[in-house]
Specification:
By secondary structure, the chain is α/β, with parallel strands linked by helices. The chain contains seven helices and twelve strands. It comes from Sphaerodactylus townsendi.
Length: about 325
């Protein structure tokens, strides 16, 4: 489900490079660190390619780690949320990245973005994925066969992430999500809250600026993590805000959501007041939405180097 991201910002892109052949066993080659940076380019739809083909030029860790399903919940009628336990201490990821998802007995490799923060992995040795039901074999397995204690394997990859170092200059973030494209952006949002909590405890770390989330879906039932998102805006007033947008709402919007919901698409008027030199823009959603928002931002004068996107489907 994950597609390629094309962007550039040396301060926040630090990781490893390389890709290893797929194998049926869960091998764990030695991790080799390299600094690298991608460059700006034009988005190209790769919806007809399989996940591994689609992301063949993306960063991947070399290590493949075993994981066990330790929790399953329904995030919506079409999305299941998995919690996975990973005991491998070398397994790490940055907020916004995805995993190659290896399932015993399923030849097709899935690609799902984390929807949890790196902090959850550090604290509890766990991560979360939210998987929408489709006929793609890995997603089909998650919705029809996966159960608590199911064993899988994971390999981290992706060029789309937010990973500031303590000495980096503060930035503001605008997160723009469409549908299940919320997953990597929710991971980033949770990482932002971890950074704020460290600031509150007077711990040494990155000083986070303001974060605004714009999230569009067909209707309010498909706004994943909506309660958790609202809880975060209440926990960090003035530092985290959200604006939900629905495009095909047929039922009455409940009272607790109504102040946050607009029944229209995200527009230039919504975004232009946040434009500044220290603002970074992260976008993830269906390709038409990602392309239109990216072009809109460029027309509003946002520098390409400050626009980052992960293209799905």
């Amino acid at each position: 489900m994950v597609c390629t991201a094309v962007f550039a910002t040396p301060l926040f892109l630090r990781g490893t490079a390389g890709i290893i052949p797929i194998c049926s066993s869960f091998l764990q080659p030695k991790y080799a660190a390299l600094y690298y940076c991608t460059v700006n380019g034009k988005m190209k739809s790769k919806r007809n390619l399989d996940h591994l083909e689609r992301t063949a030029n993306d960063f991947r860790q070399e290590i493949i780690s075993k994981a066990k399903v330790c929790g399953i919940t329904s995030e919506s009628e079409t999305v299941k949320r998995l919690r996975l336990a990973v005991t491998d201490k070398e397994f790490t990821f940055k907020a916004g990245q995805w995993v190659d998802f290896f399932i015993p007995g399923v030849s097709v490799v899935g690609g799902f973005s984390m929807c949890s923060s790196p902090g959850l992995l550090e604290r509890e040795g766990q991560l979360e994925l939210a998987v929408k039901h489709t006929m793609h074999p890995p997603a089909q397995w998650v919705h029809t066969q996966c159960s608590v204690d199911s064993e899988v394997a994971l390999r981290v990859g992706g060029n789309f992430f937010f990973d500031p170092h303590p000495a980096d200059s503060p930035v503001d973030l605008i997160l723009i999500a469409g549908g299940v494209g919320i997953n990597p952006l929710f991971s980033i949002l949770l990482h932002v809250t971890d950074l704020h909590r460290k600031q509150e405890k007077k711990e040494t770390g990155y000083k986070m600026g303001l974060t605004n989330l714009f999230y569009s879906a067909k209707n309010t039932d498909e706004l994943l993590f909506r309660k958790h998102i609202l809880d975060l805006t209440n926990a960090f007033p003035g530092r985290i805000t959200c604006s939900f947008h629905v495009t095909q709402q047929s039922s009455e919007i409940c009272d607790n959501l109504r102040p946050y919901v607009k029944e229209r698409r995200i527009s230039g008027e919504d975004l232009e007041k946040y434009i500044s030199r220290k603002t970074l823009w992260y976008i993830c959603g269906p390709p038409p939405m990602t392309e239109s928002i990216s072009k809109l931002l460029e027309n509003l004068g946002v520098a390409q180097k400050n626009i980052f996107f992960e293209k799905w489907w």
